[in-house]
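Checklist before submission:
- one chain only
- standard amino acids only
- sequence pasted in full

Submission:
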Amino acid sequence: MSGTSSKIDEFVEQVRREFIESTSERLNSVDDLITAMMDSQQFDESLVEFLRQIHSIKGLGGTFDFPTVSTIAHRLEDYIETAPEFAARQFKDIQYFVDVIRRIIESGIEPDASELSTLLKSLPVTAKDFADIEAFDDNKPIQDVRLLLVMPKGTQRKIIGKELAACGFQIANSDTPVEAVKYAIDHKPDIVIVSRVMEQMGGREMARVLATIDATKDCRIIIAATTGKGDTAFADLPESTRVIQKGPGFIDDLTDCLSGWGFFG
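Returned file contents:
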């Protein structure tokens, strides 16, 4: 049995080395794509390929015992989605994300908990570029408030994400509630905004799930719904959950809710 175990260990280590080598090659390609985007050489095509490469790195990192690589790649995707534009500052930030991933890959060692905390705090946020938005105070430090948006990719999520990033919130995005629950357990966001109607699990169900898990029971939950809080379907929601009706007044109502919870001012 010991011989079989040794062969398995050797195989696992070989596969891990191959992942490190292939990821290093991907990162070299990513560097070239950043340069192409900066030079406006087929920007849209280069951005699509860039995101494809980062998404692949995100998906494979955890599989090969580099969960921090997956986390940072996810943060990079979120940064790009909430960025107000692509100019010198954004490209510098994007390169920083990539360089952090490269350092981890080249070291071959997954960071420990204290190093991970330092790495995540060092990652760029988008809010510094929103000085023309009334809610943003250039003299106010970026808030250490983590907010998870659980919505399908699309215009609505981008609008909400950009508005909240402008106020200094650290935005993470999740396409599905199941993925979001895992993310919430791992990263413990302060606020979760979820659409009422989602595949796999609706907003009501997700609010109840998060309220029953020790790691997430203190999260504030906002359900974005086509009907308001008067809907009887929302009568039995956890105390930390609010319902905000979608429509022209959504952002104002969201701001009022967050202010009431003490996340502004």
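Reviewer check: The longest strand covers residues 220-225.
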